[in-house]
Amino acid sequence: MKKSRIFLLIAILFMLIVFYVVYDMSTKTKFRKFGSDTEENKSVKDSVKQKDPMEVEIRR
């Protein structure tokens, strides 16, 4: 009986720690906005993107 209480206490403590870590990670995560900003997010300062796809600039 005493072993099951200890196991239950450790299991509850473990679950509380897991829930805290998940909550902390979720508050620090920023989700991308979908819609008109999507095209801007794809081409953020992309040095490879050219106006003409056949034109290639070689930088040394």
UniProtKB/TrEMBL annotation:
<keyword id="KW-0812">Transmembrane</keyword>
<feature type="region of interest" description="Disordered">
    <location>
        <begin position="37"/>
        <end position="60"/>
    </location>
</feature>
<feature type="transmembrane region" description="Helical">
    <location>
        <begin position="6"/>
        <end position="23"/>
    </location>
</feature>
<keyword id="KW-0472">Membrane</keyword>
<keyword id="KW-1133">Transmembrane helix</keyword>
<protein>
    <submittedName>
        <fullName>Uncharacterized protein</fullName>
    </submittedName>
</protein>
